[in-house]
């Protein structure tokens, strides 16, 4: 039994945790070359080649804004199409929920003088929060996001199995909002 986090991007983060929550695979995947459709097709294949039947999967939802919207949309749909073909259920997790799971809001400063964190600042805050919460670090922010997603998949499973898990308020809110939605389950056609 494994818990998978997938953070789709041109450099996709992939993390697999075992049934104790320990990392068994962590990779940044990018496909072959820099020209599409070859890059996208090989990246999707690379992602799905690491999946196994019975994996519990969380995938980050579509980005709200991106400079490369066509690539992002194609990649996100391509991964979901492959999950459908392999009949692998998964939960989608909104990008802001991924950050919230580790207590990062995207803002810094005191009430009344808060400033929005920019892309690289927010990524550094997320990486620091993951290290503080779980003792996990990786040089790639994509892999760190995938780690958070794998942790969310682990928490969802434990709640379903035992009904209990020790979570922070933010973590509990994220998991409960995901549990209110059914996982995307692909039935046999």
TrEMBL record:
Lineage: Bacteria, Bacillati, Bacillota, Bacilli, Bacillales
Superkingdom, taxonomy of origin: Bacteria
Native source species: Rossellomorea marisflavi
Example of a GO MF term: nucleic acid binding
Name assigned to this protein: Uncharacterized protein
InterPro entries, alphabetized: RNaseH-like_sf, RNaseH_sf
């Amino acid at each position: 039994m494994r818990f998978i986090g997938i953070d789709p991007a041109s450099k996709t983060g992939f993390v697999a945790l075992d049934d104790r929550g320990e990392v068994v695979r962590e990779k940044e995947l990018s496909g072959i070359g820099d020209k599409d459709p070859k890059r996208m097709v090989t990246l999707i294949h690379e992602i799905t080649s690491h999946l196994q039947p019975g994996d519990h999967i969380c995938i980050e939802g579509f980005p709200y804004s991106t400079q490369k919207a066509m690539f992002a949309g194609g990649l996100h749909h391509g991964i979901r199409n492959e999950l459908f073909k392999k009949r692998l259920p998964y939960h989608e997790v909104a990008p802001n929920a991924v950050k919230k799971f580790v207590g990062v809001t995207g803002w810094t400063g005191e009430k009344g003088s808060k400033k929005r964190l920019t892309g690289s600042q927010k990524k550094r805050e997320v990486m620091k929060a993951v290290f503080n919460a779980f003792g996990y670090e990786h040089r790639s922010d994509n892999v760190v996001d995938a780690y958070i997603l794998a942790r969310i998949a682990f928490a969802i499973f434990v709640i379903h199995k035992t009904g209990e898990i020790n979570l922070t308020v933010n973590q509990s809110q994220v998991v409960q909002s995901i549990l209110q939605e059914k996982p995307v389950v692909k039935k046999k056609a």
